[in-house]
Amino acid sequence: MTTKELKEKYLSFFQKHDHQLIIGSSLKPENDPTVLFTTAGMHPLVPYLLGEKHPSGQRLTDIQKCIRTGDIDEVGDDWHLTFFEMLGNWSLGDYFKKGYYDEFSIFDPRA
User: Fold this and answer.
1) Interior CA angle at 86 toward 16 and 30, to 5°?
2) What is the per-residue pLDDT across 53-96, written as a single tens digit (0 to 9) for each?
3) Could you tell me if 60 and 54 are in contact, meaning their C-beta atoms sit under 8 angstroms apart?
4) 45 vs 110, higher pLDDT
5) Is the pTM of this model over 0.70?
6) CA–CA distances in Å: residue 105 to residues 8, 27, 48, 86, 110
7) What does the radius of gyration of the chain's CA atoms come to, in whole angstroms?
8) Does domain 3-103 correspond to CATH entry 3.40.190.10?
């Protein structure tokens, strides 16, 4: 499976479960002077995770480009990452852990 196929399968899975596809944000965060770069998939969604209503609804899925520089001197081996993409599925006040595992997981965490 290629990276492109994996991304398509991931997004398609959550879209089939009523998640709206949203476009990832810029690596340069908007309206957040506390950071230089988007460092996690949740970063662009912080206002919505804190209670603001998202225009696309409560169930979202996305691919967010991220950059981290904490280990930039070590980049080049198999263990250190600087640029990567996070695949995300988000519930903004809809389901939580139990609902997630009941509806989406192929694994039962209680087993």
Assistant:
1) 105
2) 999 999 999 999 999 877 777 767 776 668 889 999 999 988 77
3) yes
4) 45
5) yes
6) 18, 30, 24, 18, 12
7) 16
8) no
CA distances from 97 to 93, 108, 110 (A): 12, 12, 12
Asked if 24 and 43 touch (Cβ cutoff 8 Å), the reply is no
Question: CA angle 99-10-76, nearest 5°?
Answer: 120
Of the candidates 62, 49, 57, the one whose C-alpha atom is nearest the C-alpha of residue 14 is 62
Each domain of the chain, given as residue ranges in start order, spans 3-103
Look at residue 96 in the predicted model and tell me its pLDDT.
Answer: 74
Token pair belonging to 68 = 């981290």
